[in-house]
Amino acid sequence: MKKKVLITGGTGFIGRNVVDELISRGWEVHSLVFPPFAPEKEGLIQYEMNLMDTDAVNKFLKEHNFENLIHLAWYVGPKCHVHDLNLDWTLATLNLLKSFKENGGKRFAGAGTISEYEYKYGYLLEDETPTSPKTLYGESKNSIYKIASVYCKQNGIEFKWPRIFNLYGPAEKSQRLMPSVINSCLKGEDVKVSDCLKFQDYLHVKDTACGIVDVFESDIEGAVNICSGKPVQLRTIVEKIAELTNFKGKILWGAIPAAFGDEVVVGNNEKLKSIGWNQKYSLEEGLKETIDWWKEHNKGELLNV
């Protein structure tokens, strides 16, 4: 009999890759989905569910009694870091965890975030760097982390909290930094970016998914940074994309304001590596794959192909 796991957010940028990784490791994946559904595939069973409907969530969990849960769903739309929906998702997550506990739950993994940390320390370590979120999103996630860690401990549930850092890869939202730069380069348009002087920690979404599943399957509990552990300047990323796309136009540095003021933000990933995780994608390899995806996705609209 296959191992069964329930997942939320399985159709999102991270979730799709987590689902694929779980299936590749022999898990039978049951996914709670707010339409549209993901394409059908062997090993994936999908159920329509609005996680804000607490009665429906409770009824579903009573009927199915899952022992394993990976909760990735959250609001990721416009102004997601400040939106009031962060409060709704906080309550929905705590209800989901409570119902999971009441119906036989044994192992819970939630999606933490780099936004929980106090950025001014630069080098972020799970058990040493203070958490001091500057956004409602970060505060909501950190509040869940604190409550869930205590709640799971007192109820005998394994608690895992992969803290996800900056990521990139195929099918990321087109408004994000890398897709935006890639598409401008491929279309031969001027690239409008900030000064791009900051150093950040980027990891390919497939390496991120592997990290999340590695943490979930391991004996480790609590917060675990899912990151490369290597700082890279945003300017280096933009220049590498221009090189890989053979871009000959202008890069307009400082054309848009920088999103954050912290110059260096990088994570320590020793805890992640201690359970056997290894990064498979170098930045250049990951960018090449991502560029190829956008070439295929936008075929017919691009110039630099």
UniProtKB/TrEMBL annotation:
<feature type="domain" description="NAD-dependent epimerase/dehydratase">
    <location>
        <begin position="5"/>
        <end position="226"/>
    </location>
</feature>
<dbReference type="InterPro" id="IPR036291">
    <property type="entry name" value="NAD(P)-bd_dom_sf"/>
</dbReference>
<dbReference type="InterPro" id="IPR001509">
    <property type="entry name" value="Epimerase_deHydtase"/>
</dbReference>
<comment type="similarity">
    <text>Belongs to the NAD(P)-dependent epimerase/dehydratase family.</text>
</comment>
<protein>
    <submittedName>
        <fullName>NAD(P)-dependent oxidoreductase</fullName>
    </submittedName>
</protein>
<dbReference type="Pfam" id="PF01370">
    <property type="entry name" value="Epimerase"/>
</dbReference>
